[in-house]
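Reviewers asked in the last cycle whether our approach scales beyond single polypeptides. To address this, we selected a multi-component target totalling 676 residues and predicted its structure end to end. The input consisted of the following lines:
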Amino acid sequence: MSSGTLYDKVWDLHRVAELPGGSTQLFVGLHLIHEVTSPQAFSALKDKGLTVRCPERTVATVDHIVPTTSQQRPFADPLAEEMLSTLERNCQEHSIPLNNIGSGRQGIVHVIAPELGLTQPGMTVACGDSHTSTHGAFGAIAFGIGTSQVRDVLASQSLAMNKLKVRRIQVNGLLAEGVSAKDLILHVIRHLGVKGGVGYAYEFAGSAIEALSMEERMTLCNMAIEGGARCGYVNPDQVTFEYLKGRPHAPEGDAWSRAVAWWSSLATDPDATVDDEVVFDAAAIPPTVTWGITPGQGLGIDETVPSLDQLDPGERPIAEEAYRYMDLQPGTAIAGVHVDVCFIGSCTNGRLSDLRAAADVARGRQVAEGIKAFVVPGSEQVAKAAEAEGLDAVFRAAGFEWREPGCSMCLAMNPDRLEGRQISASSSNRNFKGRQGSASGRTLLMSPAMVAAAAVNGRVTDVRTLISPSAS
Amino acid sequence: MALFPTGPVQQVSGTAIAVPGEDIDTDRIIPARFLKCVSFDALGDQVFADDRLELSGEHPFDQARYQGASILVVNGNFGCGSSREHAPQALMRWGIRAVVGVSFAEIFYGNCLALGIPCATATPEQIKAIQAQVDREPGSSWSLDLAGLQLTSAKSSWPVSIDPGPLDMLRSGRWDATSQLLDHGPQVAELMQTLPYINQFASK
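The resulting structure, written as structure tokens, was:
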């Protein structure tokens, strides 16, 4: 059993009571809500005659269903309009702040909470969205929940939870030029599997992790769930504090120094015990692309689609299903696979540094003929900052569409989706069958710079061939 | 259709349906386009929509011999991916009242528990044998007994596992956690006093 880790400390600080049956009632420090997984929770609250216990610890935004072309109300899609107006009504009735379209603070929930300084070290963060693991980048314990649990958090600001084990993912050395946090997490999931993390929180540690920016740490923790780990985290350090300082909800004045002292005290102790540890060498990680239908089916850019005999017996059935679905045969080099649609955005890779990395590749080049390429900033703030430095112009000049913020084609709940058998190069997080809006659509996951490289060449490309060593 | 679960869950009886496959994610159980709703009511018909489309009538959920089934038998890492409770809601509204598999993704498991739907596990070999029997003898009766932790048909009986905590919650009827959580309202208030980030970092 783990002891002395950040996970243990934050868990203990938020323990309200032990419940009959062995689970723990855990206080939720920050509850994030959005339009897709909250309406039924509010209805259930009403049915039970309950109210929202801590509206001041609850924050809402709208992201999944928003169109990224025109965001004029009412939305063209009446179902999308109904979802947003329901959220608006629920927030108003319960005095919950809503970061709505046009507020300057709207965006993907896992982009806006960090950029507003809402997510802080030592908090427990819950949201009806599996990518809540993102917030672990700050040294928070952050996890996705279902709608019944959203109801419970609204009613009681707490949850019935079971404590996880802790696995340290120790990444030594430094990532090579042209290799990003996205490549790192795809590599980790490839090696530990999509169910390897079930029952664990992943603690990301080591020199490669310490060298990552906050936005890169968010990309990393975002996809812990794709490895089966409900939460992932990075211990708070100077990088964390520098990111937070001056943000709207960050502590100020004397409270700031007290906060930094408290946050620092929460980091995993040098003599902490973890339940498991896996070590990776950062320098050995190549740009990584998925070829199949789970995020664990990854390949280094120089590799070929594996044959069954190269795989563990347990991985073979899903590989056979992936060969058929993706129409990719064993032995096919992943570099050179033709793509139809290129999508840059999502809670994984829709932040300013992601757009910069993609723009560096797009600058002065043209999207290949017949390719649809579009960029969806993660939030209104990201869009504004990107426009201020001219990234929108770089993308437009290269033939990318520049869109309004939202989740967009990561899960295609808005009009952005694949058609038929189209295949996408996507900076999002899931390559599941049908994920991007077409029941037969196909997804290749990769970093935003790699998506830009795929867009200009019309096929999967090693981004390192397109960037000068100093330009990345 | 049988009523949704209420109170203690001691036993789930009925016919069974097998959906084989590893890592069946919640996007497959209920594709995202069906999440554009403010109630769960209509989800039962849309369960596995794209998989059913792909198999044009051959998917178990479309086959007449499995209609009315209440026990779903699956393989490993079932329910991975998105946290959408729409997935167990869709299964429940189709008629499923228990799931038996090799392993489950955590959020899906918790979502099922919150609806009073037990997720029981057995070894890969046992699940394979159970799925084969379900396919051979559709319409035969099965029973998942939570007291004895057995999955039983007229011809066979298999040991299954459910973790002690969730098992206790199901058998005692405390799987609907809201009232228990609300009982500790004063303790929540006390704990809030101790958390530095709620109190301008004044206390430690």
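Chain A touches chain B through 81 residues (CB under 8 Å). We regard this as preliminary and will revisit it once experimental data from Aim 1 are available.
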